Amino acid sequence: MPPNRPSTSPLLWVPTGYFTMALAYVMLTSVSSIMFKNLGMDNGQAAGYSSMLIFAYTIKPLFAPFVDMYRTKKFFVLATQLLLALGFGAIALAMAMPGAMALLVAMFVLMSFIGATQDIASDGVYVTSLDSRSQSLYCGIQSLSWNVGPIVASGGLVYLSGRLHADVFGHDPKTFGPEWMDAWRVIFIIVAVLTLVMMAWHVRVMPDGARAPDTPSSAAEARRILVDAFRTLFAKPGVWLMIAFAFLFRLSVGFLEKIGPFFMVDPVAKGGLGLSNEQLGIIYGTYGLAAVLLGSLLGGWFVARRGLKSTLFTLCCAINIPNATFLVMSIYQPDSLLAISAGVVIEKFFFGFGAVGFMIYLMQQLAPGKYATTHYAFGTGLMGLCGMVTGVLSGHLQQMMGYVPYFIFVMVATIPSFIVCWKAPFHHDDGMQDPAQAAKPEPDGAPSGYSA
After folding, report:
1. What InterPro entries does its record include (predicted)?
2. Mind listing the pLDDT tens digit for each residue in 24-64?
3. Is the pLDDT assigned to residue 452 strictly greater than 60?
4. Are residues 162 and 38 in contact, defined by beta-carbon separation less than 8 angstroms?
5. At what angle do helices 372-401 and 219-234 cross, to 10 degrees?
């Protein structure tokens, strides 16, 4: 079935659609950890609760076929955006209730499933409304628009929460506790209104999206397709090594992701750097994300020139070794914003540079076959599972160890990443093979291990 060509320019709905996806995802899985920390949770609780919200995004391939079966993809985009707007508004109201924390966590969990459904439907509109040439043409805009979401959420809104807390509500910015609810209530109202505006815009400009040719017509058929997709996945030669790669490549990053911001805002007396939310928002949400984007662009260019097989070890070094900047900062506890910003920028730039290797490996080696989209989603789901597991553990481990020993542990956690890169099988052309060599497929069961 040919794509359902949109009656409006994709420039009117691709940027806003992916920005809205990212805004919900970052608010639920990342900014929520800062909010929990501000409200007085210890590092173990704050990292654990926010990490559990990744679960819905990890398993979304399992319920994606069922979303495709009913109504239009646009209907699900609009419905989920309306529910998210109402949910963010309800969170703002719930903060004023007694015993609000348990209710807030339950609401966040429910909204994570709604947000994951929004991702499925929005990707569906993009894939079925644009032909292959248009998908390639707007891919850069799609990626850039998604990355605006973290800049607004982790940068602008975290910064604003600090300004509201200190300047508007007159609270002490260095003290964590229930007083922070005033500021965060305003933040969630802003997110609710913004999401509602995006939904109203998409009512006007977003196409319906077409049904894919292999869309299941019943729940039984959807289950059959899922079972067959998993059967063919585990029949691939070297699949367990590829699964290990998908889960372990970003292991050290998972242990660093939640604790890095906590380290920034924790008091110097507790081993942190004592930054305010405003400073954290600027450093992480602006400088850090700009470094990730630049690193990703240069990493993609580097792989395109030399091929993934010959660059994978370099990419592994890039994503792991710069984590040492946090170990250095925890030892010396600099008070210079320039030095702290430089440490974050170095780590984020090389993370962006190295992370492209993960996505390209999944696309080139794990995904190819009858169910390429499902198998790719399975790989990214393993990445999400790694982030969830490491996030849940990270806060408790840091509390037991303290910051300096914990960041030493993060460096030790880089070892599995190097092992899976060394063992990662290459069964498909990485784009740099000789045509004569590419024409000779490797026999099943004889994986081509990566040689450093």
Report:
1. AmpG_permease/AT-1, MFS, MFS_dom, MFS_trans_sf
2. 999 999 999 999 999 999 999 999 999 999 999 888 878 77
3. no
4. no
5. 70
The whole-angstrom separation of Cα 352 and Cα 355 is: 5
- Contact assessment for residue 189 and residue 203, using Cβ atoms and an 8 Å cutoff: no
> Tokens in use for 377?
């989603």
Distance, in Å, from the CA atom of 247 to the CA atom of 70, rounded to the nearest integer, reads: 32
For the chain, the C-alpha Rg in angstroms (whole number) is 22
CA angle centred on 74, ends 374 and 212, rounded to 5°: 40
Element (H, E) at 79: helix 73-94
CA angle 302, 305, 308 (to 5 degrees): 70
How far from the centroid of its chain's Cα atoms is residue 262's Cα? Answer: 18
Cross-strand partners of 425: 449
Domains of the chain: 1-215 (1.20.1250.20), 219-452 (1.20.1250.20)
Q: Among all chains, which residue has been given the structure tokens 């599972």?
A: 385
With 60 as the cut, is the pLDDT of residue 436 above it?
no
Please tell me the pTM assigned to this model. Answer: 0.81
CA end-to-end span of the chain, whole Å? 44
CA separation, residue 130 to residues 1, 116, 198 (Å) = 12, 22, 21
Burial degree of 133 (CB within 10 A; 0-12, 13-18, 19+): exposed
> Cα separation of 335 and 249, whole Å?
32
Tokens read off for 127: 């894939």
CB 413 within 8 A of CB 259: no
Give 292 or 142, the one with higher predicted confidence: 292
In this structure, are residues 10 and 127 in contact, taking their beta carbons and an 8 Å threshold? no
Chain centroid to CA 361: 17
Coil, strand or helix: which one is 153? helix
- Contact at 8 Å (CB) between 281 and 154? yes
Q: For the residues of 389-407, what is the DSSP string, one character each?
A: HHHHHHHHHHHHH-HHHHH
Query: Tens digit of pLDDT for each residue in 161-200?
Result: 999 999 999 998 888 999 999 999 999 999 999 999 999 9
Q: Which ranges constitute the DSSP H helices of 174-235?
A: 181-205, 219-234
Pick from 273, 396, 393: nearest CA to 338: 273
